[in-house]
Amino acid sequence: MFLSAQDVAKMVDLSCVRTISNRADIEEMVNAAKEYQFGQVSVMQCFIPYTKQLLASSQDIRIVGNVSFPSGSDSTKTKVFQAQDMKNEGCDEIDVVLNIGKLRSGMIEEVQDDLNAVIQVINPLPVKVIIEVMYLSPAEVEQACAISVAANATFVKTGTGWADRPTSLDDVKLIRSFVGDKAKIKASGGIRNLETLVAMYQAGARRFGVNLKSGISIVKECMALPNGVEV
Questions:
Q1: Whole-model pTM?
Q2: Closest CA to 217 of 198, 191, 182, 199
């Protein structure tokens, strides 16, 4: 099986979610998304309306909002409000950070109730649950995956991209071992080339969070291959 450059681009969430990201950064990302046909752009909440405006003539590019980013530690009430606001502003998908501190404290029921409340508000939009696998033990990853699946998450996402280390191939394999076909997987953080993306695709990931520079580089790598990339 081969993936074309367009196939690869459609699986990429271009991200512009750093603290210092400004309007010029958003414009640059949106222009690249249009040129290379990326499927999604991910922005911080304050830039959702502006991003929506920039994409008014490009309905095929989806806007991703981020709830309780990057810590996941907001109250359920705050998360629900954020999610509803992002939905009202026109987001097509929403990523929500799991309450990692409570998960690591063994407060599983509270983490489940929190996520259930948020996803109920977001429904029927696709939801990616960010579990920050880099900070968790295998047992905690299993719990995070079980919580996400029970809440009907569309994707389990490896991390915010703000962790101390990037997502690894083993992280993707570990999540896949727990979710199977019950949820899709998004890998995010440290995906810098086509080789890494393909390896993670083969391990089960079907969406990829990538920064602008790396995203363009990856698509150009694939464009240079006559038949696309074999997976």
A1: 0.96
A2: 191
